Amino acid sequence: MSIKHSDGIISFSIFDKFPELIxxxxxxxxxxxxxxxxxxxxxxxxxxxxxxxxxxFAAMNQIHGNIISQVDxxxxxxxxxxxxxxxxxxxxxxLGVKTADCVPLFFYDSKQKIVGIVHAGWKGTLINIVQKxxxxxxxxxxxxxxxxxxxxxHIGSCCYDISKERADKFTDKFxxxxxxxxxxxxxxxxxxxxxLQILLxxxxxxxxxELSYExxxxxxxxxxxxxxxxxxxxxxxxxIIGIRN
Length: 245
What we know:
Elements lengths: L2 E4 L2 E4 L8 E6 L17 H4 L9 E5 L6 E3 L8 E3 L3 E4 L5 E6 L3 E7 L4 E7 L1 H5 L2 H11 L7 E5 L9 E2 L1 H11 L5 E4 L2 E4 L1 H11 L7 E3 L25 E7 L2
Parallel strand pairs: 4-6, 4-8, 5-7, 11-15
Antiparallel strand pairs: 1-2, 2-3, 3-16, 7-10, 8-16, 9-10, 9-11, 12-14, 13-14
Protein name: Purine nucleoside phosphorylase
Keywords: Hydrolase, Metal-binding, Transferase, Zinc
Family: Belongs to the purine nucleoside phosphorylase YfiH/LACC1 family.
C-alpha cells in the first residue's frame, strides 16, 4: 500500500483495483482548496483534473462534529452546513472533504457501490464520527467486510503535541495503548492510529485499510498544515471520492 504523487494530486494504491472509483487528495502544489469559507467554485481547480462538473460535487462546511449527511441527485451541487461526513449510493456524484492536519477518511463498499468521506479531527474522533460512518454504510445495505478505507495524510504523533487533559480524554475513551506518546514531559496524539483501531473494532478487514504515514506538519513543503503554516502560507487540501459510470 502506498501513496502516489502526480501533478499536485495523490492517489491511494488500495483503490487501484476499482477502475470505477475516483479518489484523490490534493497537495499544496494545487493551491488552497478551502470550500467551507471560500466559494464552492474553488473546488473546480481539482475537479477539472477529472472532468467533474461542479453540479455533480458535494462538499461540507465542517465543524469538528459527527453529523453525516446522505447525498443523492436531489441535493448534489451543495455545500452541506454543520457536517463532517458525507455518504452516497449515486454514481457520478462526488464527495469532498478539506483538511490541513485533521484526518481525511475515504470509504468504499465495492459490492453495494457506496462511497463515503469523513473529516476527523480530535473532536470528531472522540465523538465517534468514524464509527457512525460505518453504521451509515450498514444502514445502506453494506456488509462491513466489504468496506475499504483510506486514512489519508494528517498530522502525525511526531508533531501533534496536546495537553494532558486532552490526552486523558483519549486514554479514558479508547484505551488504545499506542494512541498517546509521552516525550520530554509532552503528550503526542496519534490520530491515524486511533482511527485505525476504531475501524478494526468496527469489523473492517485490516487488509482493506490503507493508513498514510505522511505527516502534514513534517512534510509542510507538500501539504498545508494548520500547526506549521503561518497566516500568509496557510491553506487546505481537498479530498474527493465518487463512482463514475
